[in-house]
Amino acid sequence: MIRLNLKRWHALALCGALLGIVSTTFLPLKPAWAQARALPDFTDLVEQVGPSVVNIRTLEKVGAESPHGMPGEKEMQEFFRRFGLPMPNIPRSTPRRGQPQDEEQPRGVGSGFILTADGMIMTNAHVVEGADEVVVTLTDKREFKARIIGADKRSDVAVVKIEASGLPAVKIGDVSRLKVGEWVMAIGSPFGLENTVTAGIVSAKQRDTGDYLPFIQTDVAINPGNSGGPLINMRGEVVGINSQIYSRSGGSMGISFAIPMDEAVRVSEQLRTNGRVTRGRIGVQIGPVSKEVAESIGLGKPQGALVNSVEAGAPADKAGVEPGDIIIKFDGKPVEKSSDLPRMVGATKPGTKGVLTVFRRGTTKDLTVVIAEIEPEKSAKKPADKDEKPKLSQIGQAIGLAVSELSKEQKAGLSGQGGVRVDAAVDNAARAGLREGDVIMQLGNNLVSDIKTFESALAKVDKTKPIGLLVRRGELAQIVVIRPAK
Length: 486
Known about the structure:
Elements: H1 2-26, H2 29-38, H3 43-49, E1 53-63, H4 73-82, E2 102-114, E3 120-123, H5 125-128, E4 133-137, E5 143-152, E6 157-161, E7 171-172, E8 183-188, E9 196-208, E10 214-218, E11 230-233, E12 237-245, E13 256-260, H6 261-274, E14 280-281, E15 284-287, H7 291-297, E16 305-310, H8 315-319, E17 326-330, E18 333-334, H9 340-346, E19 353-360, E20 363-370, E21 372-373, E22 401-405, H10 408-413, E23 420-425, H11 427-431, E24 439-443, E25 446-447, H12 451-460, E26 467-473, E27 476-482
């Protein structure tokens, strides 16, 4: 009995040891299995959204006497520039005898996706720009000639229409729910390879790479030909239009940008209704507000949009906006950074009234502005300078400046605004970026109309702290901070 128990004990011990070895051997694999199960499966998404993605080919009519020598050269240059590709050295062709005067040549390839079952398709504006004919190919290989409903270069959104019905339309997702680190998928035609699926994560949101759009940044592999294709979340909803990449080689480097769908839908609705997009404008050139600028003028924190110049006769000019103002709110909504303002104003219907809250010389002020419709920028002319014998300021040398009174012509070019002309900048002033010909219009929170007011303002400031000056150079104004010597 005792022997039997001992044998049984030895057998159990041996089994336990073997089990211990087995469990020790296979335990490290469990996290790997768990991790493998946690990875997303995109097969259902591809089956769900894939039929809604289309291939877009564009053609253009080229005459035998093309001024560029090769069809679509301008568009090709833009295509290669956008994607960071070196322009290929393609030999220029000459028309053969008997060749037709006008013929259709392939121009480019891109992607798109079906918005409505009756054939509305969204893509990038640069995909269809300059095309004489647009050909849409569905996943079932059916081809349709498309009609361009409208294209908006500023947002790079376009809508085209094919005559078909019963098409599989995409579902539009809520961009506000999109999170950094979330898995996303793209379907398109990179390098003309149709129905190509790539995946990655959202790298960043609200990426400022354009005047009117805060882009979605991803590490999804996007290449030439993916343009206009959808960016899809794990619920099978389109959250963006793949539009741009950052690349030094022309291929994907893990940095791509997509137009958020909420912005794209807003643009597409205007294109479908009016064939074009109307945006508001107020006629200012703006720049960012740095921490040093904010501290030097008592703003507290870097926020808002610094007004560099105001277009004469524009809505901002009529409202009383001045160069050097910092617009901190639009219609009560905070302007956190300068790029916010064009989006806010651009989304406002022309003809409506808005309220600009500006920070000016230490205080805030509300200005009512009537929004105008955006128009092409006008080229600004630099006022001519006439040589006059300068009257120098001695006190300005304390901060490295030699200044003089403005001539009559210079004052006229400033629309009656005063200031003093910089004749020389050395030491701290030179390091701040001031140079001869600049006009100082404000020192600290004090207006400068002539040498007397300049010297009075300079005498009041603490020269052991950074000094902010509103400086005009040509048609632009900016705040320059002169730091004290260390």
